[in-house]
Write a structure and sequence with these properties.
- This protein is an all-alpha fold.
- The chain has two domains: about 70 residues; about 130 residues.
- It is about 70% helix and about 0% strand.
- Helix 2 runs parallel beside helix 8, helix 5 packs antiparallel against helix 7 and helix 5 crosses helix 9.
- About 25% of the residues are buried.
């Protein structure tokens, strides 16, 4: 088993996994302020809502940038070996991801009205799909944390927020399904060029 060792000097340069964890922390903390009971207190302590939104975006985007840096530079340390013959499960799980993400960013559809936060559910599917096909430590930290955060957030917001307001239109469900399938197909074909890892559908 490969052990991670980070010398004390130039710690962040020598331990990309630590960089990845720092990025995950910076990204998730702002996204969990509501659940931690800190959101309203922080908003009240700041001059305006715009200041809160600016700081929120700055911290989250900084975290996202550090996540990309840490993941790209992390060593490949295998934790478990994915079953090659069952890789199709990840590909199947990815189909609803794009549909749900689009549904979460359109006017009110029946899908959005029922699920309330379809984009979060899509992120959950995305995380578990990639966990199934990636057994290295950095991937497990990245995709596992996103799967855990989005599933918790999806349930928490579903229990605390009311139904989406407005009349649902089937048009936006059609847009989400067709757009999601097109996006899924395009990213599947160009996955290697976009993310450095090609997909095998044989």
């Amino acid at each position: 088993m490969t052990m991670l060792h980070c010398p004390e000097s130039r710690l962040f340069e020598r331990c990309p996994v630590l960089i990845l964890n720092l990025g995950l922390l910076l990204f998730f903390v702002p996204h969990l302020l509501r659940e931690l009971g800190l959101r309203d207190r922080i908003i009240d302590s700041l001059p305006s809502m715009n200041v809160y939104r600016g700081l929120y975006s700055l911290i989250a985007l900084t975290g996202l940038g550090i996540i990309i840096w840490g993941k790209a530079s992390a060593p490949f340390s295998m934790v478990w070996e994915p079953v090659f013959e069952l890789r199709y499960i990840s590909q199947v799980l990815m189909i609803p991801v794009f549909i749900l993400v689009i549904a979460g960013n359109t006017p009110v559809s029946f899908m959005r009205r029922q699920l309330r936060n379809p984009m979060l559910l899509g992120v959950t599917f995305w995380g578990f799909a990639h966990l199934w096909s990636n057994g290295d430590l950095a991937s497990m930290l990245l995709f596992g944390s996103f799967a855990a955060w989005s599933s918790y957030k999806f349930v928490a917001l579903g229990l605390t927020k009311g139904p989406v307001s407005g009349s649902a239109a089937i048009l936006w469900d059609i847009v989400a399904v067709i757009g999601g399938l097109i996006l899924y197909s395009a990213i599947s074909v160009y996955h290697g060029e976009l993310f450095g890892v090609g997909l095998n559908f044989d």
